[in-house]
Amino acid sequence: MFSNEQLSALIQGEIIGRGYPYNTQDETEIESHIRRLFHRIERIPNVMCEAEWNHFGSGYASFIEFFCYRKEDRVIVEEHGIQHITIDGIMIDISRLAPVAIFGEDERVKKVRVETAEEVSSGHGTILDGTHRLKVSKKLQPLANDVSKALNEYDYQLLASKDMMQPLPFQANIPTVYRPARQYIVMDAIFYWED
After folding, report:
1. Of 20, 48, 140, 150, which has the fewest CB atoms closer than 10 Å, so is most exposed?
2. Any idea where the domains of the chain sit in the sequence?
3. At a CB cut-off of 8 Å and minimum separation 6, what does 132 contact?
4. Are 143 and 70 a contacting pair, CB within 8 Å?
């Protein structure tokens, strides 16, 4: 777990870590390492992955988010020229600032117009909005085990949800859209997005 000094450094956007590539302090090298991890997870048989590399389109995210799922956990129902797609999978947040990650289950939904392949609507959650998100059901546990193995191979520590949900032990101003000041938890110091 992190000391108060390390948590403060992460809030300030400082890169910490003794192992490669975090010890280089090079953001490009760190992102390249995370991309290699992403491709490693994609090589898990029968697994599909998506990644948010670009800070959710605006602002700054201290993490890169993956959404990974098995092909059999995708359900497609077609009705009136619209495909209704529901996908159960695992959302993984990889820190850009320290060699750590968190993950939890999510359900993604999409509506796609069959004729044009246009995405009409979509929706998904974030694992940063509550303790219930840092859990994985028995159904997705085999995928979670494969993801954990890949994280370990790339020297990422999977942080425990009980540690992440502890109140932040000091006053801070965290640039996050997920939680208001005075309600910060440890997870907010490590995984934040300012829009």
Report:
1. 20
2. 4-71+90-105+124-194
3. none
4. yes
Shortest CA distance to 73 belongs to which of 125, 155, 137? 137
Tens of pLDDT, residues 141-173: 999 999 999 999 999 999 998 899 899 999 999
Place of tokens 């006053």: 171
Amino acid (1-letter code) at residue 88: D
Using CA atoms, how far apart are residues 179 and 165, in angstroms rounded to an integer?
12
CB 97 within 8 A of CB 14: yes
pTM: 0.89
In one-letter notation, the amino acid at residue 150 is A
3-state SS string for the chain:
CCCHHHHHHHHCCCCCCCCCCHHHCCHHHHHHHHHHHHHHHHCCCCEEEEEECCHHHCCEECEEEEEEEEHHHEEEEEECCEEEEEEEEEEEEEECCCCEEEEEEEEEEEEEECCCCEEEEEECCCHHHCHHHHCCCHHHHHHHHHHHHHHHHCCCEECCHHHHCCECCCCCCCCCCCCCCCCCEHHHHHCCEEC
pLDDT tens readout for residues 85-133:
999 999 999 999 999 999 999 888 999 999 999 988 877 777 666 656 7
